[in-house]
Structure formats: C-alpha cells, structure tokens
Amino acid sequence: xxxxxxxxxxxxxxxxxxxxxxxxxxxxxxxxxxxxxxxxxxxxxxxxxxxxxxxxxxxxxxxxxxxxxxxxxxxxxxxxxxxxxxxxxxxxxxxxxxxxxxxxxxxxxxxxxxxxxxxxxxxxxxxxxxxxxxxxxxxxxxxxxxxxxxxxxxxxxxxxxxxxxxxxxxxxxxxxxxxxxxxxxxxxxxxxxxxxxxxxxxxxxxxxxxxxxxxxxxxxxxxxxxxxxxxxxxxxxxxxxxxx
Length: 244
Hints:
This protein has helices spanning 16-27, 39-46, 62-75, 100-127, 150-169, 201-214, 223-233, 235-242; strands at residues 7-11, 31-36, 52-56, 81-84, 132-137, 175-181, 218-220.
C-alpha cells in the first residue's frame, strides 16, 4: 500500500492515536480528513496540521453518518483510505449492578456497529480507486480481555473477527484491509487505566506506516506481539498476565 498521495479519512482524529496518524500522514504528502465529535478540539487539532480538512461528526449517529458520506462522495471522490479509529471504553468490573448491558451497547455502537456501517457506505468510493485501504484500530484485548474493560474487550474481539472476514470478502478488489492492534497507549483516552505507563501514540502511527509499506495486514504494536505469542501457546497464561 502506498504511503503518499492518498486521501485519508481518520475517525477520532482530533486526539491520541488518530491525531498522531494525521500528523504522520500529512507529513508524507497525503490529504487527511480528521473526524471528531467535539468541534473545538477538532479545530485545535487541525491548526497543528497542513493539508487537512476537519469535519465535526459522530460516527455513531445515523444522520451524521449519512451527511458525512454525502459530503465525502461530493468533495472527496478520490478518498482511498479509511482509518476507523474512533473508540469508546468504559472502565468497570462485571458483577451485580454493573450496568453491563447498557455499557456494552454504548461501546459496541462506537467500536463495532458504526465501523461496519461507515465502511460499507464508503466501499463504493474505495472500490473505484486503483489502490485503497480500510484500517480498523482494535486492541491487544481483542486477543486477551482485560478484567477492568470487559465489554470494551468484547467489542474489540468482535471487531477483530469482522476485520478478518472483511479482508476475505474484499480479497479480489482494490481494497486492502488492515488491523492496527496497539497495547496500552499514553493518551487521554487511556488515562483511567494507567495510560501514562503506555507507549507513545507516535509509535503506533509509525508502525501503521511501516505495515502499509510491507502490506502487513495485522499490525501487532509493541507488547501486543508478545502477548499474541503467549496467547497462542497458553491462553490461560496470557489471560493471567493481562490481568495480574
């Protein structure tokens, strides 16, 4: 997959991993469209970038999604990369009065259903390009769930499964399907679960660029690679290590 002269949509592009991806891709002569729900934060992010378009929208809202797709079809017919990065995580433990069903519905809406909807609606544009890509940002917990992120982990496991079957479905099209799988990352998003101990989001962004260059479709960033190896050899040990 080429890393320059792309038109790239990044959901959740105003902070964290999304913003670092936007910085790196704009530096490599790509036009980047950053998407976010908070207009003020979005504009502050856009002010740090060159060759960027900022669009305020909530990918989990059906009307926002319809309006977004119409604008992309009209203004960005050369769109060829979609990075599904927007995420929602709730920290809690399963048990009595955990409100798990409502929490799961909240997380699945952003982390799973909205990705399926947006991707499907943009496939007609992506299929028209000579080379294009969908990137789904999942997580290390897609392999090994974390006890304090029970339904977030489940949403990322669902996204991992969907990504694999999407890659299979699109294998004879111009659309390549990547999955970016970070461990704990030092962002505002992960503050509540000790994000200050995580890796830099810049590392995550660079690993995706490297994966584009090599057409490596499942990108195990940092400790995800080690955890995946442990999971393959002993799921019980991997689960214990994740939750120690």
